[in-house]
Amino acid sequence: MLALASLSPAQIGVLRIQIVEGEGTVHPPGARSLRPLTVEIADESGKPVENAAVSFHVPEEGPGGTFANGLRTVVVTTDARGRAGVRGMLINRTPGRFQIRIIASREQARAGAVSFQFVGVGAQARKGGRGKWIGLAALLGGGAAAGVLAAGRSKGAPSAAAPVPPTAPAAVSIGTPTVTVGKP
């Protein structure tokens, strides 16, 4: 007679993977990644899972790279907070988006996730993908200042217009950055 194994209260039935750092990173071609990719593994109740095996896999072809061990796969064990991470990935020179497949396992429980990364080109990669937003903020601030200066230094006869009362500065909100690789 075949007996079916049941889960004991100490066994983990379900794992969840959450990427806590490094998602969407834009890497400079041919460089070592300075930003880690960190995940947190939790059980079905949200409690961190210690000593889970977490494997990270980069593609064999196209954009991507190799991990610090020189391979395209690395396995890391979670700490007491349920976290595991990789750093120091050597990025190849093929521009574009790539996926790092993440698989976590502990006892019979398994989970999978994907982290999207980018091999950038030009100034965007050198600035880690943030240059567009810094430039936009500078442009908005500079444009407002230029408008004030131009109004104050207009050439010709003095204007009889009434002075403009001061207003509260406009709030500028920058949302989540979007990276587009290739033609829009």
Shape: elongated
Strand % is 25-35%
Class of secondary structure makeup: alpha+beta
Helix content: 10-25%
Give the CATH architecture of the domain at 15-126: Sandwich
Q: What is the CATH first-level class name of the domain at 15-126?
A: Mainly Beta
Overall mean pLDDT stands at: 76
Order of helices and strands: EEEEEEEEEEHH
Annotated CATH homologous superfamily of the domain at 15-126: Immunoglobulins
Main pleated-sheet profile: 5 strands, mixed
CATH topology call of the domain at 15-126: Immunoglobulin-like
In whole angstroms, the N-to-C terminal distance is 62 Å
Number of strands: 10
The radius of gyration is 25 Å
Unreliable stretches (pLDDT < 50, length at least 5) are: 1-8, 123-173
Count of separate DSSP helical elements: 2
Strand order of the largest sheet: 2-10-9-4-6
Structure description:
The chain is α+β, with helices and mostly antiparallel strands. The chain has a domain at 15-126: Immunoglobulins (Immunoglobulin-like), CATH 2.60.40. The chain has helices spanning 122-126, 131-152, and strands spanning 15-21, 26-27, 37-43, 53-57, 65-66, 73-77, 83-86, 90-91, 96-106, 109-119. A hairpin with a 2-residue loop joins strand 9 and strand 10 (109-119). The protein is elongated, with a radius of gyration of 25 Å. The model is unreliable at 1-8 and 123-173 (pLDDT under 50).
